Amino acid sequence: MSTIEQVRSDLGATQTERGTVVALPGDVLFDYDKAEIRDSAKPTLAKLAQLIAADKPSSIAIEGHTDSKGEDAYNDRLSRARAQAVYDFLKDVHSVAGDSMEVEGFGEKRPITPNTNEDGSDNEDGRQQNRRVEVILKK
Fold it and tell me: What is the crossing angle of helices 42-55 and 3-11, to 10°?
């Protein structure tokens, strides 16, 4: 396996019609209810920068997402702030061109799994999966 294939695997990158998608778990990148990159997340973001350099995408979308806890407006702000933190880190630390990246926060609008169980109880695992930043490398 080549180095870049290993990086893709390590990041769990998937190919979609949108491009190469890397979903970064929010609890890996950020402390609860925060938008500052954790020191422990920096190696993961370094691998992402390596993948960006190898893929040379035409543009990069950085999309923040939250679970359904809290007010919509707050979740929208938090998801955008987290996506912006990833943008800033890639630009400032890894010299990814800022004009090639766009940032958007979706709050709780695009869950990948239910935030509640069928009986209406809290789905903690589901909420955790929904708290993420997705980076899409477009061709």
Answer: 130
